[in-house]
Amino acid sequence: MWERGLVLSAPGKAILHGEHAVVHGKVALAVALDLRTFLRLRTCAEGRVCVRLPGVGVLRSWDIPSLQALRSGFAGKRWEEDPAAPVGSRPCPCLNSPLLTSIADFGESKPPSVEQLDTLREFAGIAAGATAPESLATLAFLYMCLAISAKYGDVPSMDILVWSELPTGAGLGSSAAYTVCLAAALLSACGAVSCLLKEGESTARWTEEELTLINSWAFQGERVIHGNPSGVDNAVGTWGGALRYQSGKITPLKRVPALRILLTNTNVPRSTKVLVAGVKEKILKFPAIMNPVLDSIDAISQECQSVLEVMSANPSPEHYPVLEELFDINQHHLNVIGVGHPSLDRLCRVTASHGLHSKLTGAGGGGCGITLLRPDTSALAVEAAKRDLCACGFECWETSIGAPGVTLHSSSSLKAEVLHALTES
């Protein structure tokens, strides 16, 4: 039962193939990373809701009556502000605004309105236009907490702690992993989804119907953070494995092999918006040259999907040379369309010197790259590659793709590092 508290997690995501081409109607394959965001929910007796994200510096707390009043639109009731109350728990002048009549107008299919978000920003003391991770994480929590409780009943007094293995701002779905965890925890707290972890079980997952509900609310959280997200990241966080995305349609792959990878962050900042615009400009300038490149990237995505589906039934080593060659071809294409970067070229050269194959993942222009590891790649070879990558100033993780989606955990199923973070934070 969740009343004893619960721990759950959701995976990050990487794009395996189809970056940028997907913007132009081509197929992209997104995969779940076994780097996860963990959430611990505990009940508390103070009549408050607390949320802590030590990784981005969030420590916020609100009393439940204030949240209930905010959610209901205050029905004309005016609050007397307590000058001794901490910032974020005091009612603000906007709480008497007619805009609050929209606060009760929540739903898993309704995007958050500008008025709702402006009201929540003022309530939480977040500056208009603030885009720092701590501001957006706080805003998403408030919106989801109020919206879910408006539909399914009040949340109890609770303390939520979130800790992540995922770096923020690296294009690895960290915000979606967070909103998927929040959706699952808040829906569980309100009784909208069940908590199926039985005595003696190490992990459990929800029914397909419940996962669909979790995903829809996680998407609302992503809307708060990103404005107009595709829905891919939260779908990967919810269902895990791999999915195909094309022209707004998301199709989970039925079975996906777990593949070992190195994930490398070059730590080179980039603007996705600028990169996407650059690709579009190049296509308009050289359509007869660039459109066939996009068609080829599309074919790579579809060929990779076919290989993965075959590997699920027959995980033979003979498939790895094909996957490696697809990595190499796609990386060349991504350079052709203008989203490469010297740091990514260096990443590919370093891993090639160890007999490994890499490509960028996500927007490019820096950011992250993925390196495929065969089952027989030795630990010594992996460590040597990681050492050389770190010597370039990069961050590197050995992980896998095709990880499970949002999952409920017993304490015994957690790695020591995770257990320590959720206990000591």
What does this structure look like?
The protein is an alpha+beta fold and 425 residues long. The protein has twelve helices and 13 strands. The chain has helices spanning 64-72, 114-124, 133-152, 174-189, 208-226, 232-239, 272-285, 287-313, 320-336, 342-352, 379-391, 416-424; strands at residues 6-17, 28-43, 48-53, 58-63, 158-164, 203-204, 242-246, 249-252, 259-265, 357-361, 368-373, 395-401, 407-409. The strands form two sheets. Strands 1, 2, 3, 4, 5, 6, 7, 8 and 13 form a nine-stranded mixed beta sheet that branches. It has a four-stranded antiparallel beta sheet with strand order 10-11-9-12. Helix 3 (133-152) packs parallel to helix 4, helix 4 crosses helix 6 and helix 8 (287-313) packs antiparallel against helix 9 (320-336). The radius of gyration is 22 Å and the shape is globular. The two termini are 23 Å apart.
Give the beta-strand count: 13
The Cα radius of gyration reads 22 Å
Shape: globular
The CA-CA distance between the termini, in Å, is 23 Å
* Count of runs of 4 or more consecutive helical residues: 12
| Computed structural class | alpha+beta
What order do the helices and strands follow?
EEEEHHHEHEHHEEEHHHHEEHEEH
**Proportion of residues in helical segments:** 40-55%
Q: Which residues form runs of ≥5 with pLDDT under 50?
A: 74-104
What portion of residues belong to β-strands?
Answer: 15-25%
Please describe the biggest sheet, giving its number of strands, its sense, and whether it closes into a barrel. 9 strands, mixed
Mean pLDDT across all amino acids: 88
